[in-house]
Amino acid sequence: MRRLLFIILIVLLSACSSVETTQTEDVFSVGLLLSDSGLGDGSFNDSAFRGLEKTRDELGIIFDYREPVDQNFNGKLEELIKDDHDLVIGIGFTAAPAVNELADKYPKQQFALVDAVSDKKNVISITFKEEEGSYLIGLIAGLKTKTNVVGFIGGEDVPLIHNFEQGFKDGVKAVNKDATVLTEYAGTFGDDQIGAKIASKQIEKDADFIFPAAGFTGIGVLKEAQKEGIYAFGVDSDQFYIAEKAVVTSMLKNVDVALYDVVKKLINEEGLTGEQLELGVKDNGIDLTPIRLIQLSNKEQSIIDKAMDKGE
């Protein structure tokens, strides 16, 4: 009798296992390769991760991720590919070489690349008009500076971050031709202490608003700004809670929204293979968080609103 019960139990467990396997196979699966600064950057990576959490909660996908803190982009990306995900995403321009190489090696794998453009037929490229958001930040800095000195701090000295810098400078000069824009690059996205040191130098030169586009390095900038009693701007995600006495607003690069939309379209079999998506203010790819700590006059607010309407 016990043997019979044992056999029945095994059969039932096997049946349940088969059902679970079938269900898992039917669920859309995503693999996410973060940039080398990893989760907890309070910026780009965290935004991407939030996007996949939302797709999991609302669309029922499953996802896994890797953090290439050892710079092993190819190895980590290939791990995700071998896990047989429906979509594998590379975050940041540093992932582009690995995505392009492995897109050739695995032509049947669907990839997405964020913040860089690929010409591979199995790669969806997602870029943002970061200069539009930086322009808006520059307008605020130019309008509200009392010293006529503001600062920009970049992470690595690369074309993508130059877009942030140029947009910021253009915004400042559009409303304040007398303002000086201090600029320095940290050479890294992953060192908050370097960010703090550069911010300190700019503050010594009378900068009263600083805009970092520097990933985790920028966290040090925000904290130093708060420590020294000046204002700063967040980037990519809402960074107000990192330095609540300093962060006036944050320029949002809505990576989370973009990834949610792409996954939703792929689930609905809306072919996106090889497409290049460039998202700005009008596409909900770029935005600002609520302005805090300072007050804009009606005229100043009108300037910001008009720029947003134009998508500048």
From TrEMBL:
Query: Where is the protein found, in the record's own terms?
Result: Cell membrane
**InterPro entries in the record, alphabetically?**
BMP_lipoprotein (IPR050957), Peripla_BP_I (IPR028082), PnrA-like (IPR003760)
Q: What is its main location?
A: membrane
Please provide the record's keywords in A-Z order. Answer: Cell membrane, Lipoprotein, Membrane, Signal
* CC annotations in GO: plasma membrane
Keyword match Methyltransferase: no
**Taking every annotated instance into account, which residue ranges of this chain make up the domain ABC transporter substrate-binding protein PnrA-like?**
32-301
The superkingdom listed in its UniProt entry is Bacteria
Family statement? Belongs to the BMP lipoprotein family.
Listed name of the protein:
BMP family ABC transporter substrate-binding protein
Please give the organism. Virgibacillus oceani
- What is the organism lineage in this UniProt record? Bacteria, Bacillati, Bacillota, Bacilli, Bacillales
